[in-house]
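Re: [help] complex structure
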Amino acid sequence: MSDNTNNHDDHGHHHKETFVTKYIFSQDHKMISKQYLITGLFMGFIGIAMSLLFRLQLAWPDHQFTVYEIFLGKWAENGVMDPNVYLALVTIHGTIMVFFVLTAGLSGTFSNLLIPLQIGARDMASGFLNMVSYWLFFLSSVIMILSLFVEAGPASAGWTIYPPLSALPQAMPGSGAGMTLWLVSMAIFIASSLLGSLNYIVTVINLRTKGMSMTRLPLTIWAFFVTAIIGVVSFPVLLSAALMLIMDRSFGTSFFLSDIYIAGEVLHNQGGSPVLFEHLFWFLGHPEVYIVILPAMGLVSEIMATNSRKPIFGYRAMIASILAIAFLSTIVWGHHMFITGMNPFLGSVFTFTTLLIAIPSAVKAFNWITTLWRGNLKMNTGMLFSIGFVSTFISGGLTGLILGDSALDINVHDTMFVVAHFHLVMGISALYGLFAGVYHWFPKMFEGKMLNKKLGYIHFWMTAIGAYGVFFPMHFTGMAGLPRRYYTNTNFPYFDDLTDINVVITLFAFFAAAGQLVFLYNFINSMFFGKVGSKNPWNATTLEWTAEVKHIHGNWDGPIPEVHRWSYDYSKMNKDDSDYVIAGQDYVPQHIPLQDNEEELSH
Amino acid sequence: MTAFLIVLVIILFGVAVWQLNKIFQLSQPAQTEDSEVASEKDNNTQGYLMLGFVFFIYGLLALCFWLWGDVLLPVSASEHGIETDQLFLITMILIFVTGILTQWLLHYFAFVYRGTEEKKALFYAENHKLEFIWTIIPVFVLAGLIIYGLFTWSDIMSIDEDDNPLVVELYAYQFDWRARYAGEDNALGEANVRLIEGVNQLGVDISDPNALDDIVVNELHLPLGRKVLFKMRSQDVLHSAYMPHFRAQMNCVPGMVTQFAFTTNITTEDMRLEEDVIHKVENINAIRTEKNLDLIAKGEEELEMYEFDFLLLCNKICGSNHFNMQMKIVVETEDEYNAWLAQQAPLAETLKK
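Output below.
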């Protein structure tokens, strides 16, 4: 416990900020959080636009679309998409959405915004490293975007970039300069992520305000904290894989290559193994999906409790399940590799650990549902997205029982069933978490301005209907045996009867994407002209709502508030059950001391 | 130029919407500062919508089954596939029961506890008994699933060579397949891509005596009811040998030999007479006939009518023609198989030519 920040209470109001130090190379966590969000959203719109292009191709493979020519130029002459470009689109879509939107855009934005504000700190432990972290992320985004413009096309070996396909330019055009840029971009991204994560960990451990014990932290902070730890443990492994792949590609080493005959000649490489790469990749890749989903879980828990006007049900069980999920997430990577030629005994072990994850996940889902029970639900947009999150997390998570079971995985591995599963459980769910967070904390980011609720409702319902409309039918194409990453499924007759499904999926995809335009408009409009609400618009208990509405360096004008209770005292009654603890107010903020007529609970 | 104009139109459209919205907002009476927080009316509307949404989910699911229940894979054509299909069904039933129930609770609670001014939420922070119950139930259910799954998995993956399975090599390269039969000795000759030369496309070591009677073909024939042990190799990048009708899949990895074994339990001929398959083929041919009308009108070549065949597909991204890397599989009686094999030339003969 440390309150060492208290001794520079008056810090930060004197020195003059220039445009550059305030908006560009800012070291203030609130500005950095906005920078992360806007960069993440920008990347997200590129990622979604790409998915629309390849959905068009899948629905109407024989049709010539001028829109291909507009966006893809020479790779889509006469409106016919080149198969290599199709692969490039799915690859970059995956990379952007997983890393740039859901890792940096989600965790980066909200860890930065909420960690200092909710634990009662003036800023991150190191504002400078925080700034460096953002600018490395920005640089990696720029490089990733630049890779779209290289002569032979961007990386196209799938977001998992398995060698030898990704290592040999002879194997596909995208494995040339495009792949090099992809690897460089990701290496920088990893550096950014590590700097950010270390900062989050140190801040949470050292800079909590007086009274803020670990068991009084809001679940958001627990989720960000544990996410950062997983990131520090697993991202370096991807860095090593990327470095070895760079060496295989450029310096003739054979970490992942052996016995290859391609384009009419035998390569010298011998002794390497692509399976090694798969192990290294998934040692990050699996924890990565939890890096994506845990912050969303934290945001949802917080927003759900606030809007239900109830404490989150089973606070300790929620923390325990976050820890259990984090631990298990590092020992399940092999379930991506049941049929890669890995020893079948390992397959058994990974089936066991994988299905275990269902237990903490089930506990979380039940606890969220119970949090709603007998609540007084305020249907704000953030709340709708939180409920939507639980819904997609359940429907996507349940099909994990099939994929995690090695015997069943044999027949659905790498089919569209997998695509449907992970989009629901970590793609859509995490996006819902992101949106819930944006709607809920927008006033904190933009000095009290609020997003328009009507547009928010339209956005939510279009997204919710679109998401299920896209991904329920997609399970059926998978169960029909359709492999993923097929440029068209009508080249031979067997999958001809899936065309209808593909058309339906694409129509829903466009519907959902149109919903995102509503959000974009709402976001930009509210950023400048949004209505300013009260200081604590959702009547929440956490510390960020006690901070100044106007952004100042140091967050609180006076001393940092001291914490006397956990963050979930919603609708708590006084001893004689006659009224709420504070008469007429159904919540008690964390900085309010224990009242006379109040029963002390374990927090 | 078109591109520029389109972008311009989009921008102008955006500006127009923006301006319209501004006018709309200005014409509204001044609102309270909490106008963007959900009002009681909002809670009510959104609560009802939530209730509607759970029925949308159920309806969508039912509709999917009704419309597309017939595109799913037909009955398993391998013995172990019947086991895995059984496990798949059990898991699916579990998923549906849990899914339907939890979605109902979630959305129904969202509806029934929608907020009002008078309502008071219940301060209900924990209940260890309840939490214990919903931890222990998944533990037991999952323990059952894990044990069932593990037994099935080890049955499939443990290959007993004493059964004298038929050994066949599946050889993958961008973008096609070859199959190599071990011949009379049922032992494959050694091979390495470094030995690829001329007609020896698979790099078989011809100094290995086991290699001489090997037979390389581009159509996979399997005898009914005999265990087949596939040895997979790849020439260039990762591929995956996916035989959906046999519930079988294994990656082909350059630099190593992977394996998978199964026993067929129905011939191609009999499979074509299965009700599911007849129905599926009719559907596909109806679609193709319709397409042909278009093609005839355009004066292009017509599509052939489809007849069911088992397929070997590539199921690991492998390059531009990944979507068309496939091979036909024929399952036939032992006699038919032997007759077919006798017609194929062994490697010793092919290489002499």
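The longest helix of chain A spans residues 83-119.
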